[in-house]
């Protein structure tokens, strides 16, 4: 993949041919990685937080509102070790999720050119978010659009101060890229950072594929949260993890 562009946006993710924040210099400072990555044994994401004594288990709704030209998707891919899908990805971190394909937006309401501003995305989320949750259930909100350029990778958390919702522009025919983008944004809603910004470049859902020289879509690890991320989701205090619980970081 050509990497002419892109900037890491602290609030989400970007790649491709559009610049949405930061600076080109910031992007160029990221080296591509090769090999097995970093040793995260024993690493904790937040040393300042008390860790639960046992793994948390919750139920959740993932509400997806999609652009007019995005069909309902399986959000599943085949890897060398079987099928990876969003439900099993979240089940591994104690989250039993119901995926609800809710509203279909009108033509022109969710497009990637020009890149929609955060106010516009928040307005869409406020207007369309309507799937009720039970007491204690977590709620993830996702706006899913179709990207208009193959190389462009633009997804981000809509409201980083609260982490209730994210937007992802995907190519629905690219099942691996789509599952990775959706899982990655859900990771941000669970308050996970990009690993290389905190503890090293792991090969996982929170990686950027284009930061690796040997990225492999058949590797099941690329559809999992890494060990640090799993521990954070399962053991960090609920308010730090639950979407809507507070700011990113
Ligand atoms: Zn990201």
Overview features:
single chain; 249 residues; alpha/beta; Collagenase (Catalytic Domain); six-stranded mixed beta sheet; two-stranded antiparallel sheet; 8 strands; 22% helix; disordered N terminus; binds zinc ion
Can you describe what's shown?
The protein is α/β, with parallel strands linked by helices and 249 residues long. It has one domain (12-32, 58-241): Collagenase (Catalytic Domain) (3-Layer(aba) Sandwich), CATH 3.40.390. It is 22% helix and 20% strand. It is built from seven helices and eight strands, in the order E-H-E-E-E-H-E-H-E-E-E-H-H-H-H. The chain has helices at residues 24-28, 86-91, 118-128, 175-189, 195-198, 227-235, 238-241; strands spanning 12-15, 58-66, 76-79, 82-85, 95-104, 138-146, 153-157, 165-170. The strands form two sheets. Strands 1-7-8-6-2-5 form a six-stranded mixed beta sheet, with helices on both faces. The longest helix has 15 residues, at 175-189. The radius of gyration is 17 Å and the shape is globular. The two termini are 30 Å apart. The model is unreliable at 1-11 and 15-28 (pLDDT under 50). The structure holds zinc ion (ZN). Zinc ion is lined by residues 12-13, 184, 188, 194.
- Do you know the CATH architecture? 3-Layer(aba) Sandwich
Number of H- or I-type helical stretches: 7
**Which small compounds were modeled alongside the protein?**
zinc ion
Strand order across the biggest sheet? 1-7-8-6-2-5
| Shape, per Cα inertia axes | globular
């Amino acid at each position: 993949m050509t990497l002419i562009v892109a900037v890491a946006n602290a609030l989400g993710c970007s790649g491709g041919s559009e610049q949405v924040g930061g600076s080109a210099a910031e992007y160029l400072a990221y080296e591509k990685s090769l090999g097995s990555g970093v040793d995260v044994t024993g690493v904790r994401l937040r040393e300042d937080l008390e860790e639960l004594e046992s793994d948390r288990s919750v139920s959740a709704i993932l509400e997806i509102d999609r652009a007019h030209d995005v069909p309902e998707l399986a959000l599943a891919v085949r890897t060398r070790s079987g099928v990876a899908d969003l439900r099993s990805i979240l089940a591994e971190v104690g989250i039993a999720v119901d995926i609800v394909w809710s509203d279909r937006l009108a033509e022109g309401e969710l497009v990637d050119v020009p890149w929609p501003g955060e106010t516009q995305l928040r307005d869409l989320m406020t207007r369309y978010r309507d799937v009720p949750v039970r007491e204690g259930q977590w709620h993830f909100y996702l706006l899913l659009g179709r990207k208009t350029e193959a190389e462009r990778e633009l997804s981000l958390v809509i409201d980083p101060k609260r982490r209730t919702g994210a937007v992802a522009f995907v190519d629905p025919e690219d099942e691996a890229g789509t599952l990775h983008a959706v899982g990655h944004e859900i990771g941000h809603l669970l308050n996970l950072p990009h690993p290389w910004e905190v503890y090293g470049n792991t090969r996982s859902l929170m990686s950027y594929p284009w930061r690796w020289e040997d990225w492999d879509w058949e590797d099941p690890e690329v559809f999992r949260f890494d060990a640090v991320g799993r521990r954070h989701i399962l053991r960090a205090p609920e308010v730090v993890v639950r979407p809507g619980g507070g700011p990113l970081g």
